[in-house]
Fold this protein.
Amino acid sequence: MTTDTVATAPRPVVRAAALRPARTAVRWAVRHGLPAAYLSGGARRGDPLGRLLRDPAVREEPWPLYEELRARGAVVPGSLGPVTTSHAVASEVLRSESFGSALPLDRAPRWMQWAFRFGDQPEATGVAEPPSMLVVDPPDHTRFRRLVSKAFTPRAITAFEPAVQQTADHLLDRLERSTGVVDLVDAYAAQLPVLVIADLLGVPRERREDFLRWGAAAAATLDPGLSFRRYVSAERALRAMNAFLAEHFARLRRHPGDDLVSRLVGLPEEEALTERELHATVLLLLGAGFETTVNLLGNAVVLLDAHRDQWESLIADPPGWDGAVEEVLRHDSPVQLTGRTAGADVVIAGQPVRAGSRMVVLLGAANRDPEVFPDPARFDVTRPNARDHLAFSAGIHYCLGAGLARLEGVIGLRRLSERFPELRVSGRPERRDLRTLRGFERLPVRLR
Ligand code: HEM
């Protein structure tokens, strides 16, 4: 660091700290307050997305709303943009080069562009904001994805199988000692994915309770229209996560290990990520690594408890778990929706979609499209084409961790069923207060 930077450093820091509350308020207003106003108004007028995102009853059971929308057509207008429930349209949009993931900010009014710039806070940036690969378009998307995809090839994931098995067994050994009613999310479904992704990324396992707490608060930022109170708590969690990552990167620069993050911090200059890109990439891998698979495991246990014959048939025929995991992903998708921005005027399913419109893709509804899945509301672990679901999206943003999630799902559920074949849900499971993600916060079970 030069003397000059040292001499001038304190001033911007003081100013940045003083401006923080204003930035938070502006940031919340444009990212959540304004959409919330649109959505609430829309919900009162019967707007589909408004009802989906604002009505607690619809969060519990979105299926009737999805069917209502489907009956109105493959593409239906909504308060934030056109909405689709159709598998064919969702596949087309997700794979189309005419659509991107980035928000259409360059088309927004000048005051809004200013508000986004003013509200920008690198140390509180979440997974649904650039430069997270989830919401950037090529060429940046291609650059980020290429740097991390080697760690997620089928061969790399197969090599990871014994570690996943060992982690599951270790957690189940601990569960053996429990008596009475146990919260399966807390004791197993949340623990397995966080321990696995911590090992894969080379972040300390001991911090897992912190990750889970931060992740739970930050996951809410995926839902447009958050209340100010929840937004502030999410922002606090993101600051804590980014601060942890900054220390972790510094440690790895001093003592690199043989893990993905060490490789990312040590990239040669011509490939190196900026600090901000590095934070966004690792934060996404970490968050996506555990905030989604927990829902797959929890949703599976609840569905199989309600369909006991299928649980028993899987215990008798363990290779069936591969298909069972696909059917859970289809039937009760852990990620219910995503969005894409039209880069040009296009016609989708006969409906004109204007350049700059944000299209809402209801993955959870596309996965129940009767055109693709006969009798879609029926849960059937032997459904032949369950794997045609879009639970991992499609196109260039297809889930990077799909192979890992499937492995964790199959091993996690098979081992659980072998160890505790008598497991039963005991009490009412509580859903997480989230819309984009769908899963359980608490899942009381008796193990034997
Ligand atoms: C059941 C578990 C999971 C589900 C349902 C799921 C679902 C998804 C979906 C739907 C997307 C794309 C969203 C879009 O198109 O806008 C996505 C992207 C992503 N997922 Fe997953 N995911 C799961 C587990 C994981 C795991 C274990 C990881 C591990 C690191 C992971 C890492 C990612 C990453 C990095 C992306 C961004 C890919 C890109 O933008 O190119 N996911 N996931």
Summary: Residues 101, 133-134, 145, 284-285, 288-289, 292-293, 296, 334-335, 338, 391-393, 397, 399-401, 404-405 surround protoporphyrin IX containing FE (CB under 6 Å). The first helix runs from residue 3 to 8.
